[in-house]
Amino acid sequence: RRLFFARVVAVAIFLALVLAGTSGLGILFFPVLADQPNLLRHIFAHATAVLASGAFAAAFFLALQGVLLNVFGERLFRRIAPLLQAMSITLLLALLLLIPALAGSLQPLLQSPGAIVRSFPPFWFLGIYEWLLHGSAAPPVFFTLARTGVLALGVSIAATILTYPLAYRRRVRQIVEGSSATATRSSGFASVDRLLHGTILPLPPQRAIFHFIRQTILRNQRQRVMLGMYGGLGVAIVLAVMIAFRTTATGQVHIELTDYGIRAAAPILCFWTVAGLTAVLSAPVDLRGAWIFRVLLGRARVLHLSAARLWITLCASLVGLLITLILHFLAPASLRSPFSMAAQAVVTIGSAFLLTDLFLFATRTFPFTHLHRSSTTDLPWTVVRYAILFPFFVVKAVEWEPFLESGLIRLIGVSLLLAGTHLLLLHAQGHTLERTNLELFEDDEDTFPQRLGLRDA
């Protein structure tokens, strides 16, 4: 136990030291950029501030985990852990992506009497840096920020030392003693299931795959963590695009929501929801049980893969429509018209369908049952997907919304165009899937029983 705790602390300190050392070496080899008369003091201040910020981040999350485990227990903590992980990733990425937006308003922010500066952790360690570098000659605001940073670092480290060993002991005891199983099905899920069975899931194979996806994501921690990472990245990008800092004539800084960010929020979240769910469904859970699909259903066909498509499309549409509804109350009056809401809904639902078709076009297996081996062809497709397709898709989606708002005829025409493109992609995928099954069936039918251990005597 002591060794495990020591390793956790050592990893956190090592990461903080690497950050501090990298920053110090960068200043050492590029002293011109530093533009400071005392280079050694500049290196010391910079390395100390970065080390303190890294130690604070590591200690804060360790302390948060320890407090939650001791207060709520292992069972409840496992339920809220994916949400906390997604929120943590969102927070860290949002802080990183908001730095360019803050750079232009840094001086007014530091001079403003508001609580934005004192609530932004990177400013705390900026205060430590300025206080160590200039001492009493630094502006008073940096002394206040430095004091907040030192206090936050001390509280986080103390909370980690007090709570983490207790949480680890409790966790080990529960692993040894075990925990009672609880039913995960609720009446809410049952009513939703009846609605889905009567509408979009009329066939038993579709229902089986659909519920298999839901139950696997809810029960498997790895899948939930992956989904939280993608969701956190999407929310962080939305915040970075949507939030802007405006300086008034009196020098005060206000946070505003940009029109472009409000329009782009739903397409961005749709893209990362589809990308995250596609990655989650392609990540295997336990390949030893994958043979049951081969025995009961044979090779994956269009009917079976349609359940995965419905799951991803439904989730992406709900996420996009939810963020559109929330931003409707925060948007300016020009974006609250009925045509504006209808245009955003059409773009959101159309994006969910088309992105799902594109991401699942090459899928040939049941969800969670295939181990994908990396190859040299993965890197170009990854670059195209995230570096080219993502910005191009968001820009075009935002450009189409004003076009759709101009009239009902255009709204209906674009809706029909999106529906036709979706049907063409479905037909092309089904044709490719059937042809692939015919080519691979003869090679697979002789080797399949041997993979189950069923060999001739």
What can you tell me about this protein's structure?
The chain is mostly helical and 457 residues long. The protein has helices at 2-29, 31-34, 39-103, 106-111, 121-134, 140-177, 187-198, 204-219, 221-242, 259-282, 291-296, 302-328, 338-359, 378-405, 408-445, 448-451; strands spanning 243-247, 253-257. A two-stranded antiparallel ribbon has the order 1-2. Strand 1 and strand 2 form a beta hairpin. Helix 9 packs antiparallel against helix 10 and helix 13 packs parallel to helix 15. The two termini are 50 Å apart. Residues 1-6, 17-35, 180-184 and 453-457 have low confidence and may be disordered.
Instruction: Give the DSSP E fraction (strand runs of 2 or more residues).
Output: under 5%
Spatially, the strands of the biggest sheet line up as 1-2
H/E topology pattern: HHHHHHHHHEEHHHHHHH
Count of extended strands: 2
Q: Please tell me how large the radius of gyration is.
A: 27 Å
In terms of structural class, how would the helical and strand content be classed?
mainly alpha
Query: Helicity level, as a percent range?
Result: over 70%
The mean pLDDT is 76
Reported for the largest beta sheet, the result is:
2 strands, antiparallel
Which spans have pLDDT < 50 for at least 5 consecutive residues? 1-6, 17-35, 180-184, 453-457
How far apart the termini lie comes to 50 Å
Q: What is the count of DSSP helices, taking H or I runs of 4+ residues?
A: 16
**Silhouette:** globular
